[in-house]
From TrEMBL, chain B:
PROSITE patterns: ABC_TM1 (PS50928). The keyword Cell membrane applies. GO terms for biological process: transmembrane transport. It is a multi-pass membrane protein. GO terms for cellular component: plasma membrane. This is ABC transporter permease. The keyword Transmembrane helix applies. Keywords: Cell membrane, Membrane, Transmembrane, Transmembrane helix, Transport.
Length: 514, 326
């Protein structure tokens, strides 16, 4: 790997990895990676969020179920690993930026074959990436790929990706789970990739079955012989099947039952600190939230520690109304932390001169915790004399008709591989996905300057500035950054705790039966 | 045939078939309207959190969601009458081919439960009736009321908790496929079938008991008793045959209601049947699947109702005879 910021970045990651270590240790019993990896066995994995409409085309991946498929028949160019989300090689064995930072050069691993016997070349990579930007693409990285200046092959083993402006944080984007590489010309529906397991049967919304790819380019992976990946949408069914030993690896378990599960001797529970969050959106272009004092009043009217204690005691990390997680290398410790200050909140609220309750819309569609969070927020704000009225909306259609549409509502954001990705997608004034319609020229300038800055320390300073502006002026209240909870049966070894669920979606190729 | 041509059975069958078809027609309108009125549409649900106005518009056009409702209904009805329920919005497959294996799975689950629950519950109901007011009757009554008052999904979770989590003898996930062996099917079906049996038994037991006791309190039974005919002979030779007709329709109705419970039970046990397909399709706004499932469930319900009335009529000789004046 020849990334230009390798050394300083590595040392930084060590610190964040150490600080995050406590959170990721299994909560019950001893954590022992029992001896050397062993081949063999049939691994049963389960997740919710599946649908009969699921497809093996990586371009369609987005749900809790399909994101995990990405680690079965596919590989991306790069992967993120561990608690610090360290970037590491996958199909690209090394990468480096051009001098001006406007293009990135990826050198591919050689002698990699697809499940159909074809050898991997740069043409396959160019094809696989470009189809995300196609007209009919519904890929959730479409805007990222279509925003590039060019993707081209340079010989059979080199791919060059060009950007309109310098971007020194780009490679991590390619670790996204929809960016699996398929053979040129394929529509991806047959599941042919380069990955550790070949799909033998796929019944959408029911099960995916796969067997080991004997030609897998990683010799120290793909330990189990076969994988059965079940779709279990009912959380109680998932929980009971996991408890009764029918499932070896379960992902996205209910955080509130995790402490109970971790006491069972036949299970190991992993809490991943994570980068996603549930947030309160205030439309900054709508009254009364167009007034920054109103936004600040509400940010000070929430007791974050109490909320974490009651809603996310195992994996919640204190939030500060900007989206960068404390476990992120770009996290700034210098942004003043918003603390619960009922008196100051009330003064600010009164200064706006708004009368009547603020209607806060929430729904199970976000998460069962979203409803609890709204009610707890109401309680905190009422203590400060700020009247909030919680309106519980039906789950059906909540994402379409409420999120990003109404003045004050609960929303959520999933994991993104970098601070840049979440800051750009959710907060840049030019993003179509800026739910609060927040416009701040200084913030935009800081983010754009950061990604174009080759020096790590200077880049961190720009991101710190972006975090500060977002925290002070932004329309999003982020009480805490959430994590996810994964679990394995106690006979599974090799599960590496990560900031993302399922060890950055690669858990299946890494685990073995002890 | 001429006897049949004039028989009340024939006119009954024709009348009921006609009214059944009319019901299904109106149900199809309700199902179509209901699904059209759901907030949010498939385009939004398919694109999820990453939807932008342009992609939503483009997808709506592709899916034909921009056409007027009446036109969409007529086109859908025309195709449905030819057995074509359209293609799934989310994966482009034929709804009929998606539905067929799921329907078979649901029917296997429901009929396995029916085959067990009908004789069992009728038998228990008869025992309760024979021992009216005694300990056996009280115990049967209270146990069946207990299950009657619990929602079916709760019974499902209880069954899972006891047999899968605590005892660990049966799987809580019913993963089956057509190629599974008979033993695998039986193991997978054990808990969902047990749950359905517990859900459906109460009505059959209570109504069987009531039907038999209703006949037992009629004048001709009292006559038989005063003549000194043994109690068992009265019960089995005189009372039971006359109570059979209501019992049969109760059983058919309970089986029909069980079809509704199958939707919930399949979700609890992750059983790959039509109910789970429908629940998932609602969540993902896959309207053609929801519509087809809705119409199919209603058709099964109407058909079982029809069958219940028909059987009740055939069993009761009085209703088979031509009415005077016909």
């Amino acid at each position: 790997m020849s990334s230009p910021f390798k050394i300083s970045r590595r040392s930084l990651l060590k610190i964040s990895a150490a600080s995050g270590l406590m959170a990721a240790l299994p909560m019950g019993g001893a954590w022992a990676q029992g001896g050397a990896p062993k081949r063999g066995g049939h691994l049963v994995v389960a997740s919710g969020g599946a649908s009969t409409g699921d497809s093996l085309d990586p371009r369609t991946f987005g749900s809790a179920y399909t994101s995990v498929i990405s680690g079965i028949p596919y590989n991306g160019l790069v992967e993120v690993h561990g608690l610090g989300m360290e970037l590491r090689p996958a199909l690209a064995k090394s990468w480096e930026a051009s001098a001006d930072g406007k293009s990135w050069i990826f050198d591919l691993e050689q002698d990699v074959t697809f499940h159909n016997g074809k050898t991997l070349t740069s043409a396959d990579v160019v094809y696989s990436l470009q189809r995300h930007a196609a007209e009919d693409s519904r890929s959730n990285v479409r805007s990222v790929i279509s925003g590039l200046a060019g993707i081209r092959a340079d010989g059979p083993n080199r791919v060059i990706i060009e950007m309109p402006e310098a971007n020194y944080v780009f490679p991590a984007i390619l670790s996204g789970f929809p960016l699996g590489i398929i053979p040129e010309g394929s529509d991806g529906r047959d599941g042919v990739g380069t990955g550790p397991y070949k799909v033998t049967r796929f019944a959408p919304g029911e099960v995916l079955e796969a067997e080991r790819n004997e030609n897998y380019f990683r010799k120290d992976a793909a330990w189990v012989d076969s994988v059965e990946y079940l779709a279990v949408n009912d959380p109680s069914a998932l929980n009971s099947a996991f408890q009764s030993g029918q499932i070896n690896v379960a992902t996205l378990l209910d955080e509130r039952t995790a402490p109970l599960l971790s006491q069972m001797p036949n299970l190991k529970i992993y809490s991943n600190p994570g980068r996603g969050f549930i947030c309160f959106n205030m439309r900054t272009d709508m009254a009364p939230f167009d007034n920054p004092n109103m936004r600040l009043a509400l940010k000070l009217a929430i007791d974050r520690e109490d909320m974490i204690r009651r809603v996310s005691p195992t994996v919640g990390a204190l939030g500060n109304d900007h989206p960068v997680a404390p476990s992120d290398p770009m996290y700034s410790k210098d942004v003043p932390q918003h603390v619960y200050d009922p008196k100051r909140a009330k003064e600010l609220f009164d200064s706006v001169g708004y009368s009547g309750p603020l209607v806060l819309q929430t729904s199970e569609a976000i998460s069962s915790r979203a409803v609890d969070m709204a009610v707890i927020f109401q309680e905190h704000a009422n203590k400060a004399g700020i009247p909030i009225e919680v309106k519980r909306e039906p789950a059906d259609g909540y994402w379409e008709t409420i999120v990003g549409q109404t003045p004050f509502h609960v929303s959520a954001r999933s994991d993104r591989p970098t601070a840049d990705a979440i800051l750009s997608v959710a907060f840049l004034s030019t993003s179509g996905n800026n739910e609060c319609k927040w416009v701040n020229k200084d913030f935009d300038a800081a983010v754009l300057a950061a990604r174009a800055e080759p020096d790590l320390e200077k880049r961190k300073a720009f991101y710190a500035e972006a975090q500060r502006i977002c925290s002070e002026d932004g329309g999003t209240i982020i009480p805490f950054i959430s994590g996810t909870v994964d679990g394995t049966s106690s006979d599974i070894d090799g599960f590496v705790p990560s900031a993302q669920q399922m060890a950055g979606y690669r858990a299946i190729e890494n685990v073995w039966f002890s | 045939m001429s006897a049949f041509a004039n028989s009340p059975v024939r006119s009954f069958v024709l009348a009921r078939l006609a009214s059944g078809l009319v019901s299904i027609f109106f149900i199809s309108i309700l199902v179509f309207l209901g699904t059209a009125l759901l907030p949010g549409d498939a385009a939004n649900a398919l694109l999820g959190q990453n939807a932008t106005p342009e992609t939503v518009l483009a997808l709506r056009e592709v899916l034909g969601l921009d056409r007027p409702l009446v036109l969409r209904y007529l086109a859908w009805l025309g195709n449905a009458l030819q057995g074509d329920f359209g293609t799934s919005l989310s994966n482009g497959q034929q709804v009929t081919s998606l539905l067929a294996p799921r329907l078979v799975n649901s029917l296997i689950l429901a009929s396995s439960a029916a085959v067990i629950v009908v004789p069992l519950a009728v038998g228990i109901g008869l025992v309760a009736a024979m021992h009216r007011g005694k300990v056996a009757d009280t115990v049967i009554g209270s146990v069946s009321s207990l299950f009657l008052s619990m929602p079916s999904f709760l019974i499902g979770y209880l069954v899972v908790f006891i047999f899968a989590v605590q005892l660990g003898i049966l799987p809580s996930l019913s993963m089956v496929r057509a190629s599974s062996s008979l033993t695998a099917w039986m193991i997978a079906l054990a808990l969902p079938v047990l749950t359905l049996v517990l859900v459906a038994q109460a009505h059959i037991i209570k109504l069987t008991r009531a039907a038999v006791l209703g006949v037992m309190s009629t004048d001709y039974i009292m006559m038989a008793q005063t003549k000194g005919i043994p109690r068992n002979t009265i019960f089995f030779r005189h009372a039971l045959p006359n109570a059979l007709s209501p019992i049969v329709s109760i059983c058919m109705m309970s089986v029909a209601y069980m079809i509704v419970d199958v939707v919930v039970i399949e979700a609890v046990f992750n059983y790959p049947g039509m109910g789970k397909l429908m629940v998932d399709a609602v969540a993902y706004r896959d309207i053609p699947i929801v519509q087809a499932c809705g119409v199919l469930f209603s058709t099964i319900f109407v058909a079982l109702n029809f069958l219940a009335d028909l059987l009740a009529m055939l069993i009761n000789p009085r209703q088979r005879l031509p009415r005077k004046g016909n």
